[in-house]
Structure formats: C-alpha cells, structure tokens
Amino acid sequence: MRILLLCHSFNSLSQRLFVLLGELGHELSVEFDVNDGVTLEAVELFQPDLVVAPFLKRAIPEAVWSRYTCLVVHPGIVGDRGPSALDWAILNGERRWGVTVLQANAEMDGGDIWATHEFDMRDASKASLYRNEVTDAAASAVVEAIEKIQSGSFRPTPLDPARARGIKRPLVTQQDRAIDWQRDDTAMVLKKIRSADGFPGLRDEIAGREVFLYDASPAPGWSGEPGLLLARSGGAVCRATVDGAVWIGHLKDKGSVHPFKLPATQVLAGPAGELPQVSTSAEFGCGVIRYEEKDQVGYLHFPFYNGAMSTRQCESLRRAFLAARGRDTRVIVLMGGPDFWSNGMHLNVIEAASSAADESWRNINAIDDLAREIIQTTSHLTVSALRGNAGAGGVFLARAADRVIARQGVILNPHYKDMGNLYGSEYWTYLLPRCAGQEQADRIARARLPMGVREGQSRGLVDEWFDQDARQFERTIVEQAGALADAPDFAERLQEKARRRRRDEAEKPLSAYRDEELARMKLNFYGFDPSYHVARYNFVYKVPKSRTPLTIARHRRSDSETALRNVS
Ligand code: COA
C-alpha cells in the first residue's frame, strides 16, 4: 500500500513504523503536520491508499479524513480519549494499558476502532513506557489494522462509550500532579514525576527556584526532613520524602540562560555544591553506571538519561570498563540502558558550556578514549547488547565491541549528518569497513535514514537480532554471553582477536584513524561553517522543523533527487 505517515515530528514511534512498514513492502512517505495546507498538499502529491498518524498534536483536517482512510494511533485503551492518555494511566496507577488504532473522524480519538493491543504497565517514566510498551503495541496494532484493511471484509467497530473501560479525560495540568513534599510518599512522588517525564516535566520549587523535574528513581536508605536536599551523586540530587527519598537526575529551569534539560547538579550549581557527594552503586536510574557479574561474564549498565553521554559520563564509563576488564572474567557485555543504548555526545551539556566548541572537543575525545579501550581489549570478548535505540556516535561505539546483538524493534540512526553534517569519530572509519566492508561503510556514511535491526544486520552493524520482548531479550543476553564465555574455542577466539588487532594496527594505527576523524571534527567545531552549532542549537531548543526533510518526504522529491538518493 501507499502509506503516508502524518506526524508532528519523526519521533521514535514514527521511525519504528517507517522501518517496519517498509520491511513489509509498503511504499512510504512522511509529512510533518505543519498546517492544514501542507497536509492537504502532501495527500494530493502522494495520493496514498492510507494515512497513518502515529504522533500528532492536532486533529487531521476534515478535507483529508473525509477523502482518505486515516488511522490514528492513540496511546490508550479502548474508550480512552484526550491528550494525556499515558500521563493519566501512570497517575491513576493503571495495571494494564494499551494502544488503540482508530479511524479519524470529527471527534478527536472517538473514531471507529480497527485494532487495540494491551500491555502490563511498569514502574517507569512516560517516555520509557512510550519507547517500549507503547511502541511495541502500536507497531502490532498498526500492522493488524492494515491487514484488516487489505482483507477488504473487516468493518471497524464503532466506539461504545458505555461499554468501554476507557473514558474521555482532560489535559493533565501542573496542579493535577503537583508534589506535596509534606504529604506525598516516595511512591507518589515518583509516580507524579514519571507521569510528566520526558514532557512537559513536573513543575516544582527547589531552593527558591521554579524548576521542572525529570529522571527520578528511588533512593533506598536515605531519609530526612521532607522536601530537603540530602546529597548529590554524579549529576543527580537526593531529595527527602515523608518516608524516604528520591534521586532526581535532570532539571530544567525555563527562566535560566540554559532553559533545557541538564543534570540536576549543574542547574542547582550553588545549593547542590554544598551537598555531600556520595557514590551510588546499587540504585537504578539517574545515569548510575552499574556493574554486575555472573558466570565469567561482567555486565556493564549505563542507563544515561536519553542516551546522552557527557564528557564526565564517558570518563566514568571508561573507568568502569577498565575495572570490568581487570576482573577475572571472560566476557564483558555493554548493556547501555533499557531505553537507549547510546545517542553519542551530550548535546545539552555542550550547549550549556561556556565554549560549546571546547566542550564538544572534550566530549568527542572522551567517547573516543572509551571506544579505544573497547577496541583494544584482548583479555575479554566484548558484546554490545542493544535493548534500546542507538543514534549517531552511539551506534559506532556499539560496533567497537566484538559482537553486537539487538532486540527486534530497536532503531538505529547510524549517521551524524542531521547534526549539521558532523563528520563523526568513535573510530568509525576503522570500525565500519572492518565490519561491513568499504562499500557498505560508504553507503552507511552517506545515508541519513533510521534503520531496523534487519537492515542493520545486512549492513554489518548488528551481528544477530532476536524477535523477543524486553524480558525475553534480557535472558537471551545472558545465554549468549554465557555461551561465548563457555565456548570450547574461547582461547582461540581471543588469540585470533589479538592477532587481528596487531595486524590492523601494523597496517594503520588506531591513532591515525582518530587523528584523521578529529581533524574533520575540529573543522566542524572550530571552522568557518557554523552548521553543527546551528543544528545543535535547534536540536536542544527543539526548534520545530518548518518542512519535512526530503529524505523522508518522498512525495516532494523531484525525479532526479529520487534517482540520486536511490543510488546512495
Ligand atoms: N544529547 C542530548 N540529548 C539527546 C541526545 C544527545 N545526543 N540524543 C537524544 N537526546 C534527547 C532529545 O533531546 C529528547 O529529549 P526530550 O526528553 O526532552 O524529548 C530525547 O533524547 C529523545 O530524543 P528524540 O530525538 O525525541 O528521540 P528519537 O528517537 O525521535 O530520535 C535520534 C533519536 C538519535 C535520531 C535523535 O535523538 C538525535 O538525532 N540525537 C542526536 C544524536 C547526535 O547527533 N549526537 C551527537 C553526535 S555523536
């Protein structure tokens, strides 16, 4: 089918559907919902058989839904309507939630139902649920709806509000989820913060400043006067509740000179500086690097918020990796986080630095230092286990390991081009040709589209992928790593790895790859062309795109552009 994805932005769910429906043989194009005129123009140009709206912030114009079948993906169970579906599901403590695919009509979220898929809720942020359970359910429900449309015989079910479990709910306001630090227990505080994370954040006051809270996790063992800040660790601050405390990893102060998400200690520089610095090890979340060991395998978790890796985080991770390498184990698994494996340099921290160019330089060098240690490891076999998406330098960092395994549904964005034509580093000029061959490497470097694990495997970015849910994949990671550690030819594999590294080094030293890449990056950071700085500013400040990039708006390309892109 010719399917137009109509979306507010090309977010993770839209990318997932773009990849999945493309794999299923559909012809896809994308249009950003900028205004009615643009949307109408898009359908005129593309003449789709179907419009799918995975992520919209306004209603589809009547002139479109009255002429084309339009499916809207609503992140709620049957009957649920309104703009804050997941927020309410978290606040109300729903045990099961779902995604419903509806046909657009005059009533927002009230159209006939084509498919619905439910899932168990998890104690996690709205963004985490969206990127995992919601995206998986939406992918299945959209595919089911399309199959039903293609069958020609299925009639969608009209919504019967009297029989549906879901109801119409208003937008969640800041008052609805305001924290009362003198009354709310830890569970309630977490629930409220998570219901607003990643957007819009929960508005609160810390040290007399209005800030938005994100990236919260429990702080077992901590307690104090409710509402008081108790300690800091990494970028997070610990704040007491009536029955314990929570870690808060990120804050946004809209009134400050850097009105975007930053590590909490950076936003609260003064008051946080006076707090005792502690090292957290056992707690989850808040970017805490965690190491665990089982049966000759070391697992290194680095659940950095949004997959962004600042200079400091890369340095800490490198130290943790070296410590893992010092252990008497055989395999090290780089686990990333449950939502993202890595999205490369921390663009927000860079944007907030006194010299963005200098901080970019420090950050890329810190990632390179980490990548080099992984590549040079000859004492262990290394595995990158992609449970969540990876983007830009994060994809190439994963490839630094001997083996890359991924869960089906993971989306890779192995390109830096959208960040102002950044050249990129992380030894990609060594790693890509080594794993994919020079021709594939060139193709990957030229492309700027998201890819699924199937394509990732065919292009040498992924070695193996598993069509499993998150929990099953966790077990697979352990099995795979265990099998590698127990392999009868483990010693030979290690020797072969060391031999290959020596051979590669003799042919061209790693330092030469790095120098060449960094020479290009220096131009990106310090040269005359400001594209990278402009692109980073737009990304961090979330400047909306005024038109859909031609890479995905295929209906807007001229024939020559299409031909050119097909070649690459
Ligand atoms: N630094 C800081 N924040 C980042 C980030 C980075 N490298 N990558 C992603 N984020 C943040 C986004 O700002 C967004 O923040 P929010 O919680 O306020 O919404 C969140 O992570 C999710 O990102 P989003 O772009 O909405 O996710 P996506 O799945 O739609 O797209 C990418 C994924 C990787 C394509 C996109 O995030 C991206 O281009 N990131 C930048 C990658 C990059 O250029 N890194 C630097 C070069 S190494």
Structure overview:
The protein is of the alpha/beta class and 568 residues long. The chain folds into 3 domains: 2-151, 3-Layer(aba) Sandwich (Rossmann fold); 186-273, Methionyl-tRNA Fmet Formyltransferase, Chain A, domain 2, CATH 3.10.25.10; 290-526, 2-enoyl-CoA Hydratase, Chain A, domain 1. Helix content is 39%, strand content 20%. The chain has 20 helices and 21 strands. The strands form 4 sheets. It has a 6-stranded mixed β-sheet with strand order 2-1-3-4-5-6, sandwiched between helices. Strands 7, 8, 9, 10, 11 and 12 form a 6-stranded antiparallel β-sheet that branches. It has a 6-stranded mixed β-sheet with strand order 13-14-15-17-19-21, with helices on both faces. Helix 12 (393-399) packs across helix 13 (428-436). The relative contact order is 0.08. The model is unreliable at 563-568 (pLDDT under 50). The chain binds coenzyme A. Residues 11-12, 127, 198-199, 261, 306-308, 343-348, 389, 391-393, 413, 416, 418-419, 422 line the site of coenzyme A.
